[in-house]
C-alpha cells in the first residue's frame, strides 16, 4: 500500500496531496482586487512553488482546471497561461466560469501532475 503525503495541510484542506506517483494541487488563487493578469501570474507562481515542493514541475502537468469569475477574462488569463505553460507538454485543460471564494477573486487554477521519476 502506497502512503499518502499531504503538503501544507490544515484542518479543512491540504495544498497538495501526493499518492501513487501523482500530485493533486488545491485550487490556487491570486490576490483579491488585482487584475486578471496579475492574479494569474500569482496563481502560476504558487503552482510552480507547490509543484517543486511536491517533487515535480510544469513539464509534468497532466490536467489543469481553470475557473474564471467571468469568461470575459478568458483572453487576458490565456495570455499569461500561454507565456507560462510548457508548449511541448501542455496538459489536458478545461476552463469554466464560476463564482469564486470572494467577488474580488478572478482566477482559480487546479492542477494534477505526475511526479518526477
From TrEMBL:
Classification via CDD domains: YjgF_YER057c_UK114_like_2
Pfam families registered for this protein in UniProt: Ribonuc_L-PSP (PF01042)
Domain of life: Bacteria
Matches recorded under PANTHER family: PTHR47328, RUTC FAMILY PROTEIN YOAB
Name recorded for this polypeptide: RidA family protein
The organism of origin for this protein: Roseibium polysiphoniae
Amino acid at each position: 500500500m502506497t502512503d499518502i503525503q499531504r503538503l501544507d495541510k490544515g484542518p479543512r484542506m491540504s495544498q497538495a496531496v501526493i499518492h501513487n506517483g501523482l500530485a493533486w494541487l488545491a485550487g490556487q488563487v491570486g490576490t483579491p482586487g488585482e487584475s486578471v493578469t496579475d492574479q494569474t501570474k500569482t496563481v502560476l507562481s504558487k503552482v510552480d512553488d507547490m509543484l517543486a515542493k511536491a517533487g515535480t514541475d510544469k513539464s509534468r502537468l497532466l490536467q489543469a482546471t481553470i475557473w474564471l469569475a467571468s469568461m470575459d477574462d478568458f483572453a487576458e488569463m490565456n495570455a499569461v497561461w500561454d507565456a507560462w505553460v510548457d508548449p511541448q507538454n501542455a496538459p489536458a485543460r478545461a476552463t469554466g466560469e464560476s463564482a469564486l471564494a470572494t467577488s474580488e477573486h478572478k482566477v482559480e487554477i487546479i492542477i494534477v501532475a505526475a511526479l518526477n521519476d
